[in-house]
Amino acid sequence: MADIAFLLLTFFLLTTTMDQNIGMPRRLPPMLEEQQDVDINKRNILQVHVNSYDRLLVNGKPMEVILLKDEVKTFIQNPNNDADKPEKETKDIAGLGSMSVSKGVVSLQTDRGTSYKIYMAVQNEIMKAYSELREEFSVSRFNNPLTKLTEEQLDAVRSVYPLNISEAEPRDATAKKKKK
């Protein structure tokens, strides 16, 4: 009886597959030979800061996490070409022709005391904004949702709304408090 139980246990252990977490996809900048300073116009950066008390500041103003998605969408789209929102540049995109693409970058900064829960909530809202922008563009341009696009069409949509998210090293807010 023990041999049969051992054989069954071995069988299930060998044939069972485990799901692997793949994490969140991020495009890292290319390695530089030497350190270079990159000048980015201040209007092209949406600064999102989460402090150690899990409070969200967007461009220095307090905001609820649930409102962040709409703020990011408005920032990236800049429908009225506002002077305080990102510039647009014209790019030639394969399959679409000449398109206006935002130079906007969402910059995320956290403190070391920021909880994982709020960090993930902020990440999710930023990703939802990009997903919705891409989905809306896909439906309006190709009359299909993203899931039904060809690989070329999907690349074109990603080129119109590139995922420009910058995450800075978490700050240690408690170190500043101790120095004062």
Element layout with pairings:
Layout: H1 2-15, E1 45-50, E2 56-58, E3 61-63, H2 68-77, E4 88-93, E5 97-102, E6 105-110, H3 116-142, H4 151-160, E7 165-167, H5 173-179
Parallel strand pairs: 1-6, 6-7
Antiparallel strand pairs: 1-2, 2-3, 4-5
Please characterize this protein's 3D structure.
With 180 residues, the protein is of the alpha/beta class. Helix 2 (68-77) packs across helix 3 (116-142). It starts with a helix and ends with a helix. The protein has one domain. The model has no long low-confidence stretch (mean pLDDT 85). It has helices at 2-15, 68-77, 116-142, 151-160, 173-179; strands at 45-50, 56-58, 61-63, 88-93, 97-102, 105-110, 165-167. It contains 5 helices and 7 strands, in the order αβββαβββααβα.
